[in-house]
């Protein structure tokens, strides 16, 4: 039987990704999350819970949204301020943070996310993340071998 090398103390490291690469990756994931929320889907890629209808002959929130020309489902749009403030807050080497830069929009998103989790990485968002990471890796070819600690 021929000799086969056995690697016991080496590991493959993809990266380091630069801050610019992480900003690109973060923007793609942010766009994917914003598009999904705009379609009224939750973090599991399922339709979000319906908005509460009016009671006793009174109009409800879906009626008010429809009267303004908006979609009458849970998509986090009323004035557009909440979703406009969804940005990549910080990007550094091997790390990107996505969140809401406006404190009021952050509070609204937090309360809406308690009702039903819509802000988060869904399975389709993970596919977009994998695709952009692969594209960045092909462009940069950033693979190094490091000694395991």
What features would you describe in this structure?
The chain has helices at residues 19-38, 61-67, 81-84, 103-115, 123-140; strands spanning 10-14, 86-92, 95-100, 143-147. With 149 residues, it is α+β, with helices and mostly antiparallel strands. The chain has one domain (10-50, 77-147). The strands form two sheets. It has a two-stranded antiparallel sheet. A two-stranded antiparallel ribbon has the order 2-3. Strand 2 and strand 3 form a beta hairpin. The chain is elongated.
Number of domains: 1
Largest sheet: 2 strands, antiparallel
Inertia-based shape: elongated
Content-based structural category: alpha+beta
- What value does the average pLDDT take? 86
* Tally of helical runs: 5
In the predicted model, the low-confidence regions spanning at least 5 consecutive residues are none
> What is the strand content?
15-25%
| N-to-C span | 32 Å
Strand tally is 4
The main sheet orders its strands as 1-4
Q: From the alpha carbons, calculate the radius of gyration and give it in angstroms.
A: 21 Å
Brief write-up:
The chain has 149 residues and is α+β, with helices and mostly antiparallel strands. The protein contains 5 helices and 4 strands.
Sequence-ordered SSE layout with sheet pairings:
Blueprint: E1 10-14, H1 19-38, H2 61-67, H3 81-84, E2 86-92, E3 95-100, H4 103-115, H5 123-140, E4 143-147
Antiparallel strand pairs: 1-4, 2-3
Supply the key terms:
149 residues, alpha+beta, two-stranded antiparallel sheet, two-stranded antiparallel ribbon, 5 helices, elongated
